[in-house]
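Thread title: Can someone regenerate the structure for this chain?

I was given the following input by a collaborator and told the matching structure tokens would be attached. They weren't. Posting the sequence so someone can regenerate them.
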Amino acid sequence: MADLMTQLGLIFFASVVFMLLALRLKLPPVVGLLLAGAIIGPNMLGLVSQSDYISIFAEIGAILLLFFVGIEFSISKIAKMGLRSFVVWVVKDAFIFVIVYEASLLLGLSDIVAIVLGSALAVSSTTFFIKFVGEKNITGSAEANLVFVVLIIEDLLAVFLLAIYSGMAGGNAGSMSSVLISVLKAMLALTVAYLVLQRVVGKVFEWLSGYRSDEVMLFMSMSFLILLSFFASFIGLAPSIGAFLAGSILSTVKGFRKTQDTLSKFGMLFSSFFFLSIGMLVSVQAMLQNIWAIAILFVLVSCGIFGSVFVSSYLLGYRSNAAVRSGLLVLTVGEFSLLIATQTKDLVAPFDIVSVTSALVFLTALSGGILIQQEKAVDTLVSRAVPQKIKDSAKRISLYLNEVFKDFEPGGPVYTTFIREGQTSLLSLVFFALIGVSGYLAYNIMNEVFPRYAGYVAMAAILLETMPVANIAYSLKKLMDKAALAFHKAMGQNLALDDLAMRDSGIALFMFALAFMIPLAVSLLKLPKVFGMFFLIPLFLSVLFVWNLAMTIRKIMFRKELYRYEKTRASFKAPYGHMIGEIRSINPQYKGHKHEKG
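Best answer:
Regenerated them for you:
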């Protein structure tokens, strides 16, 4: 026990010293904790060993860390920011995964190591983001909200990755069935949590709040956290995933914020042990052996994160300085990267992924902390580096996409139509199912009682089924019309219909060619097969622009028919014009026949 107390004393002393050093360098305390663990740990000075007590504290810290991340997760926050955050997330994570995956293969690493590294390094740090936003006093700004939702989506994806890797850690790394089973288990946990527990927990906490006891609310929250962690562990997932679900559910409970403030102090202590234990796993020898890999990945990840976020956010309508700030806010690889690394360290052995990931967290945190303080200088450098022609083209694309995305976001006509027609289609699906079940039962009954009329019952059921199908098709048509109008409204208001048709056909062909090329590129780069699904994005856009083209051609044909009608009408009036004039000179009350009136 005396030895344990001595180690705890060294841990707390070293933590204070290195956290103060990190704050002095304007870095988050997490960096100081990683350094403290690495220096006093068994791989350097050897003052503290990775004992069972510290491992237990670290496990509790990881669970609490995911619990607090779950508290910040909110579907309403994701929906509020609309499509822009989703697009930035897809561009960033896909780009980082591809460049890290390809670089890892070129460095001689195995496929599984490349996949794990790519997925771990694609996730940025929420902790670092919150610290930088607070320091810059930009909480609530448009770019901060955009990045925050991107990080929420990344955290949710990381939870699924942890579920997948926990299933693969059982020794079936090459088995696709084990991966699918893990995903299904995660979906089961999410479904149970959101559809059942959310309502039950809300009622229970509302009842307990009547006792006005902070202690009761605190212990009830911890009990619920432990219950869901045990449930996740019971079905074969990491306990931290259950903690994430617990936090997400409790975040919707009224009056939980007061309990959260108390829990945050408790969680801060144990989360510190998690980062310290990660630092203790860092091997200086392993870092030196992979020094070139760390250096190359650091440059690729830093440039890739900044470039992908800057370009995507700028093209989506954000100003240059806001786009630069967005890129700098997510420059740091974060806590989920460390969680993924520790979860997969046996899966990718003998490669020391924990040491490599910890080194990259430290380097990206250091560079991110320095660059965020030089935001204006970075903005000026980027502005000077980009040629004026590219700036002008990017500005036009930005203005166009900004107008398009406004229609797709909450409050826009496409979003409103989607919600309205989605409800109509859902109701039609219910009627479709009811008619199908009723028709099946009626057919069986008639087949037993009056076999001669069973066929008529089946035909009647089929005819009735066409009504909800027609309603769904009509709702889809209205949604496609609104989406097509969103693209035309921003692009074609000042264009002639012929020019609009040419532009639609050109974009549709380009998107179709891109959809055809994506599977070829995935095969050539030896990427995971799931990346082949990206062809659906340009394929959908090509269908949308073909729909636009059909609407434009219909307008052109209608105008031509109208022109022919007017021309025929004018030619019909011409031979009789002088006669009508003579009649009116005799009888001023003459107003012409019906075919002469407008």
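The chain has a mean pLDDT of 78.
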